[in-house]
Write a structure and sequence with these properties.
This protein is an alpha+beta fold. It is built from four helices and six strands. It folds into two domains: 144 residues, Alpha-Beta Plaits (2-Layer Sandwich), CATH 3.30.70; 35 residues. The protein binds iron/sulfur cluster (2 copies).
Length: 181
């Protein structure tokens, strides 16, 4: 695979600065609502707060790649005496939990760095995080050329994993035929 120069966009998370306000969840879900800003349901956010105020645990986690299969292990982390729940740091939408799934369709959600239309100068969750627990960085790197899946492809990949590719293709063909009638 060839190497190309690519702008790498990074959101850094400083867990110790997070106060669990959930402003990041609200703005993310509002920006990705249809129509934009018409609702702010945190269940539709691509960043989720693991929040246990009694133990002072606040952990913002970004939605990453969709995983078609459950993993074999469950990790627990203890950092500075705080214990984080199993799967706590995992960014995947996967079959073993409801996190990072669109609540109505159950299709996987993935952080798009707010490159949706209109693209934002900085990710909105960073702009709305007043404690600076989230900060944004851009840098140039030489990386392997890859094919980036968009929301539609990620959704289709998840449906194909659930129902099989042939069933999806048959359904699309049936829909196309019924549109012609
Ligand atoms: S960068 Fe944008 S899409 Fe990603 S979690 Fe933050 S607000 Fe949501
Ligand atoms: S906006 Fe910042 S401080 Fe508030 S919950 Fe999100 S990451 Fe934490």
């Amino acid at each position: 695979m060839s190497k190309v120069k690519k702008k790498v966009k990074v959101i850094k998370v400083d867990v110790d600065k997070c106060n669990g306000c959930r402003a990041c969840e609200m703005i993310c879900s509002a920006f990705h609502a249809t129509p934009k800003y018409s609702s702010n349901n945190p269940a539709r956010s691509r960043i989720r707060l693991i929040r246990e105020p009694l133990r002072d645990v606040y952990l913002p986690v970004y939605a990453g790649e969709y995983a078609a299969a459950e993993c074999m292990g469950r990790d627990k982390y203890v950092i500075d005496g705080k214990e984080y729940e199993e799967c706590g740091f995992c960014r995947a939408s996967c079959p073993s939990r409801d996190v990072f799934k669109e609540p109505d369709s159950k299709l996987p959600l993935k952080c798009d760095m707010c490159e949706d239309d209109p693209a934002q100068p900085e990710p909105l969750c960073v702009q709305w995080c007043i404690t600076k627990a989230l900060t944004y960085e851009e840098r140039e790197e030489e990386v392997e050329e890859d094919v980036k899946l968009g929301d539609l492809e990620t959704g289709l990949e998840s449906l194909a994993g659930k129902y099989g590719l042939q069933e999806i293709m048959d359904t699309v063909a049936r829909m196309a035929m019924s549109k012609k009638d």
